[in-house]
TrEMBL record:
A Pfam family per the record: RNase_P-MRP_p29
Function of the molecule: Component of ribonuclease P, a ribonucleoprotein complex that generates mature tRNA molecules by cleaving their 5'-ends.
Taxonomy of the source species: Eukaryota, Metazoa, Chordata, Craniata, Vertebrata
Domain of life, source organism: Eukaryota
Subcellular location: Nucleus, Nucleolus
A GO MF term: ribonuclease P RNA binding
Family label: Belongs to the eukaryotic/archaeal RNase P protein component 1 family.
Keywords attached to this entry: Nucleus, Phosphoprotein, tRNA processing
Gene3D superfamilies: Ribonuclease P/MRP, subunit p29
Protein known as: Ribonuclease P protein subunit p29
SMART domains given in the database record: POP4
PANTHER family, A to Z: RIBONUCLEASE P PROTEIN SUBUNIT P29, RIBONUCLEASE P SUBUNIT P29
Example of a GO cellular component annotation carried by this entry: ribonuclease MRP complex
GO BP term, example: rRNA processing
């Protein structure tokens, strides 16, 4: 075949010499030592290759913000212009109607134990604190966290009441329910799945 096209086969040393001559004529500032390593250990790409683009990790649509991101965005902060008692009254009335429906109507003949279990499962909120530094504070609960309640009073002031070492009461339809904050130190999402145990005495 080599005789037909006018080519002659070369030995290994001749092939290496021809390659060096070709590289010198094709590459600027060529140094023979530079080509020794790539020619000896790996294949050299003579064709054009596009640079690889770095893949940008996109945020999945289903991902949620964590607590730190929510705090940075101030999602839990009530703006001063929204700290008005009358703004929360419609929601408060709606909540009272919801509790009445859940308990099947608050009647004098209703069992206190039955009502207590229903109120606990309904994610109960408090309206008055017996914490020593906030005795007599009455208002509407606007926010609940794991360790504190935020209550807005009729004077349009937001009070932060710690749950620990505090007793809260709720009055509805002639019924009064007492809640010991030390036993309530958990998030609402955790409380909905928690089974409350009946205790004879509760220490503050």
């Amino acid at each position: 075949m080599g005789k037909i096209v006018g080519l002659q086969s070369q030995s290994r040393s001749q092939a290496e010499t021809s390659t060096q001559v070709f590289l010198k004529s094709s590459i600027r500032n060529f140094r023979g030592a530079d080509a020794t390593s790539p020619l000896s250990y790996k294949a050299v790409m003579l064709e054009y290759s596009r640079p690889k683009k770095e893949k940008v990790k996109r945020r999945s649509k289903g991902s949620r913000m964590n607590a730190a991101q929510k705090r940075r965005m101030k999602l839990f902060t009530i703006r001063p212009e929204h700290q008005r008692y009358e703004l929360f009254l419609p929601l408060h009335h709606l909540w009272r109607q919801y509790i009445t429906d859940v308990c099947g109507g608050l009647k004098p003949t209703s069992s206190p134990q039955f009502l207590q279990q229903k109120l606990l499962k309904a994610d109960l909120h408090v309206v008055r604190s017996r914490c020593p530094s906030y005795v007599g504070t009455t208002g509407i609960l606007v926010q609940e966290f794991k360790h504190v309640f935020k209550i807005i009073t009729k004077e349009n002031k937001v009070k932060v009441i710690p749950k620990r070492n505090s007793v809260f009461s709720l009055e509805m339809g002639g019924f009064t329910s007492f809640i010991y904050g030390s036993r309530f130190e958990q998030r609402a999402s955790e409380r909905s799945a928690k089974k409350f145990k009946v205790r004879g005495t509760i220490d503050l």
